[in-house]
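Saturday, quiet lab. Running sequence design on the structure tokens for the scaffold JK sent over.
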């Protein structure tokens, strides 16, 4: 593919070469009191966004956090963390893949969101593979140290494959949930110690198929109550298809009641939640990019008083659905990543869909599609699509760019409208192949806009060995 230089958000000479790019205090004035937002690490009231970079440093991995502000995000207000950064538990080793998944939540209940980072291939002496690092948030950002968790039992594998933070028992205080290759664990509401003295409770094995390989967990108020239910997803054996199941929360035996949503069908590669029809119940959105010969589709399962799949039938949308931009073609990968938030500010959550091998002007360069929420469900009226050939979007669409490989919606400027982070993991920067880059499109009353677009890549955050970095591969969820 042709190479070119993106319009970057900040000059490289303004960045430090060390682990912390800028003093964290530069992320914005510290709030007098923490905001308590799930993804506000420094308590200034603005949403922050974490980007996992598991391919960095010989796959030792890293995480970049961009701090939100009234003007959006910029590399000048950011921090880069590895397991060699001061206060971050663990040691950076090739193959750990620190940043393979990232999430956030106030794990130690001090009013500041904490960064939760999975390293499912971490090697820990005397323990199964995998760890989960929690980096404490605070008024100065992510500078207050952290704690590492490892598999509680010897028969586990790939601990830290996924994580979520939600209130499963309905008492008003959230708990940390962790997925390994074979188990689902949840921790007490007290701050995890990391020394093995606190108890991690597993979901009984007989609830899960013997050959399941779990990939992740998400949670939501799917029944509209104060209690979160949770969803586990992964795949069955070698080529055995998908596994997707919902488990009920509530006081008592968490997970005692469960419903299999899909077993052996097309694998859900991406999962997101939000209230699309504004009925007070969380809906589940899954992306199945290899369905229909790789053309891909998105499935919406609706929240209901009895939980997922107990009310309205699921909706399936693809590029052959009326009103959805584009045409479904084998290999498009519609649904490679999905994210759900309210972009327009009307109270209905919208769905961002990545289509990383969509043909754009003759090249499989990739695109994103935005589907709108409404009282009747997903509305394709006013659906939007963007790619690198869209006017005012920096760059040139070329085969292999994979624009839309990652998508993440977050209201970074606190105006009530979610903004879109989207990655092209195969983007070349100059002569550096597959370095990857991220664009930020701002939300507006009519949807996403091309005004004040920000774009940046790994070099803007001090990464130096960027060939194959695939920056933007992982976003907070």
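Result came back. Writing it out in full:
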């Amino acid at each position: 593919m042709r190479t070119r230089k993106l319009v970057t958000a900040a000059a490289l000479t303004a960045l430090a070469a060390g682990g912390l790019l800028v003093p964290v205090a530069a992320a914005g004035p510290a709030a007098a009191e923490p905001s308590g937002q799930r993804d506000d690490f420094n308590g200034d009231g603005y949403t922050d966004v974490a980007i996992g970079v598991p391919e960095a440093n010989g796959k030792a991995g890293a995480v970049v956090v961009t701090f939100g502000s009234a003007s959006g995000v910029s590399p000048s207000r950011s921090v880069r963390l590895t397991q060699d950064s001061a206060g971050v538990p663990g040691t950076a080793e090739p193959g750990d893949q620190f940043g393979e998944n990232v999430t956030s939540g106030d794990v130690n209940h001090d009013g500041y969101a904490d960064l939760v980072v999975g390293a499912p291939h971490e090697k820990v002496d005397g323990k199964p593979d995998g760890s989960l690092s929690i980096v404490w948030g605070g008024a100065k950002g992510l500078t207050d140290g952290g704690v590492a968790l490892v598999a509680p039992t010897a028969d586990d594998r790939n601990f830290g494959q996924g994580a979520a933070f939600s209130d499963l028992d309905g008492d008003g205080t959230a708990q940390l949930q962790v997925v390994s290759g074979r188990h689902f664990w949840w921790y007490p509401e007290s701050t995890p110690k990391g020394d093995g003295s606190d108890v991690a409770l597993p979901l009984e094995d007989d609830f899960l198929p013997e050959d399941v390989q779990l990939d992740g967990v998400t949670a939501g108020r799917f029944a509209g109550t104060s209690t979160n239910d949770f969803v586990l997803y992964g795949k069955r054996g070698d080529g055995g298809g998908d596994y997707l199941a919902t488990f009920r929360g509530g006081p008592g035996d968490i997970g005692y009641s469960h419903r299999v949503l899909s077993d052996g069908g097309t694998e859900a590669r991406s999962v997101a939640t939000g209230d699309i029809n504004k009925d007070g119940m969380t809906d589940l959105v899954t992306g199945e990019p290899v369905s229909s010969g790789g053309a891909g589709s998105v499935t919406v399962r609706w929240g209901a008083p009895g939980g997922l799949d107990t009310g309205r039938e699921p909706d399936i949308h693809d590029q052959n659905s009326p009103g959805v931009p584009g045409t479904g073609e084998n290999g498009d990968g519609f649904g490679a990543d999905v994210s759900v938030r309210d972009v327009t500010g009307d109270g209905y959550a919208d769905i961002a869909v990545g289509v990383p091998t969509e043909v754009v002007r003759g090249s499989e360069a990739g695109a994103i599609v935005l589907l709108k929420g409404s009282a009747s469900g997903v509305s394709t009226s006013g659906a939007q699509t963007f790619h690198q050939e869209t006017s005012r979007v920096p760059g040139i669409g070329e085969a292999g760019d994979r624009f839309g490989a990652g998508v993440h919606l977050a209201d970074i400027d606190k105006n009530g409208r979610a903004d879109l982070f989207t990655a092209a993991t195969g983007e070349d920067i100059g002569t550096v192949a597959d370095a990857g880059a991220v664009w930020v499109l701002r939300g507006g009353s009519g949807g996403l806009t091309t005004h004040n677009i920000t774009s940046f890549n790994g070099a803007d955050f001090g990464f130096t060995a960027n060939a194959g970095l695939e920056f933007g591969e992982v976003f907070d969820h």
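Notes for JK: Helices lie at 56-59, 291-294. Residues 56-59 form the longest helix (4 residues). Ask whether to fix the surface positions before the next round.
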